[in-house]
Amino acid sequence: EDPDTKIISLYIEGTKNGKDFKAALKKAALKKPVVLYKGGKSEAGKRATFGHTASMTSSVAVFNAVCSQANVMVTDSLEEMMDVLVMLSFAENITAGSGIALLGAGGGPSVFAGDVLEKEGLRLPALSPDTQQELKKVLPVDGSIFANPLDTPNMASPAAIQQALAIMGKMPEVHMMAYHQGFHPISRWGMNRFSSNEFKRDFVAALLNAERENGKPVFAVLRPPMDLSGMEEFLDVSSALVKAKLPVFYDLEKFAKALSRVVYWKRRRQGLPSNALL
User: Fold this and answer.
1) How far apart are CA 268 and CA 263, in angstroms?
2) Residues 6 or more apart from 39 whose CB is under 8 A from it?
3) What are the respective helix, strand and coil percentages of the chain, to the nearest 5?
4) Is-contact 34 73, C-beta < 8 A?
5) What are the backbone angles phi and psi of residue 69, rounded to the nearest 5°?
6) Distance of CA 19 to CAs 22, 37, 41, 56, 269, Å?
7) What is the rounded average pLDDT for all residues in the chain?
8) DSSP helix/strand/coil, 25
9) pTM of structure
10) CATH number of 100-269
11) What is the pLDDT of residues 189-237, one digit of tens each?
């Protein structure tokens, strides 16, 4: 009932009154998104749960069925819960549509990103010939792959990012957009290319302008560097995005899973078919 509470998240090991818990869960989920992680799903976890809270854990299948009936988002880990909470907190304009436009530098990362997004039930709509031609007018043709995911050699440039997002965001089949960085040497951290105030200002503006222009959420997926030399630059850019209230994720697979959870939840909430994302 608290008007200042926008999202409810729960870590729960068990319940002593299943009927009351189910009723409270359904009541809460009708008003606000509820995200839940249940501990004690394995035999070892059940033993630890009993020693921790003296509560008996119910069947995982029964517990999941109760949550599904109430349209509660059940995550597989606490880390996934955090990703879903970020998604709900920073991307309030997510719709029930699953079409996503993805762009970044590097053919390999783009292929991998496409695979993990579709694995989670999300769609990457093909670019029409008109959209491809529009992109070719503002982006380099040599070395580029004009598809979805979009991959061009200059896709670490804020100007190129903004132009590409603006064009792809106009597609009616696209309901959201994501930019990935740090997964390819072109956008590698630690070379002082992204730490300038000018780059951070223009990069943040590119994502915000694309979101404002098309009315569709824009996500950033930044891969943390494996070396200390790049960490300072990575944290600097990540901080600039967070301060601008842009949703930032650090792993393509975890991003895809969290996004799928939220879209699936939106579909159920709107009474749309939930057996498959459309």
Assistant:
1) 9
2) 11, 12, 13, 45, 48, 49
3) 50, 15, 40
4) yes
5) -65, -30
6) 5, 19, 20, 15, 22
7) 89
8) helix
9) 0.88
10) 3.40.50.261
11) 888 889 899 999 999 999 999 999 999 999 999 999 988 889 999 999 9
Residue 50 has pLDDT above 70, yes or no: no
User: Under a CB-based contact definition with an 8 Å cutoff, are residues 207 and 241 in contact?
Assistant: yes
What Cα–Cα distance (Å) separates residue 160 from each residue in 157, 163, 166, 202, 255? 5, 5, 10, 11, 23
| Burial of residue 215, with CB atoms counted within 10 A of its CB: 0-12 exposed, 13-18 middle, 19 or more buried | exposed
Tell me which residue of 204, 200, 207 sits closest to 169, measured CA to CA. Answer: 207
To 10 degrees, what angle do helices 18-31 and 60-69 make? 40
Half-sphere exposure of 67 (CA within 13 A, CB side): 21
Domain boundaries defined on the chain:
8-74, 100-269
Architecture field, domain 8-74: 3-Layer(aba) Sandwich (3.40)
Measure the CA–CA gap between 118 and 252, rounded to whole angstroms: 12
Q: Are 81 and 258 in contact (CB under 8 A)?
A: no
**Fold match between 8-74 and 100-269?**
yes
Other beta carbons less than 10 A from residue 18's beta carbon: 13
Cα 210 from Cα 204, distance rounded (Å): 10
